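Thread title: Can someone regenerate the structure for this chain?

I was given the following input by a collaborator and told the matching structure tokens would be attached. They weren't. Posting the sequence so someone can regenerate them.
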Amino acid sequence: MDELKKKIFIRNGILAVLLVAAIIFVSVKYAPSLENSMKSLDGFRDYILSFGNMGVLMLAAFQFLQIVIAVIPGEVVQIAGGYVYGTILGSVILIISTFIATVLVFYSTRLIGFPLVKIFVSKEKLEKFEFLTNSKKVGAAMFILFLVPGIPKDALIYIAGLTPIKASNFILISMLARTPGLIGSAFIGASILQKDYTSAIISRLKRNST
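Best answer:
Regenerated them for you:
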């Protein structure tokens, strides 16, 4: 290993350790309270509103964390966002925090590489989407996958960093594909708060059918 490769290897290793350590610290600090508060939508709403004006940032942080760590159920946080702040504000918070998390995860993967991906993405998922790393039409494939219900979108962000896709193209594609779902989840949450269960059910069925 020449001197330049050695320096790059050491740098990437340090960055990987720091990132993982930061994620573990945040998870240990906030995961218990988040888990308890999310046992019900009312509990989560009370928890977020207990922070006052900072509640907006707390919701954004939870959406950010569920993408970066990929263990918190994303749809639960997104529906809760609409339940707490309504469709419009809830959607704005979710979209902005999703954008920030997507940029961070993608560029971190580009910088650190596979050692980071294998920490947060299971071997099964890596093998399932291995074809993306050498696909000449990775952009189109990513867009379709982000639209398919049940596909692990957060894992795809890590995997995308290993593909030849341009960062700007991927971020645009992922946000275009995810935004309707984020708005739909916020709408479901807002409908549940207003006890408009018919609209919530119809919206959920439409999401599952697309």
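The chain has one domain: 3-209.
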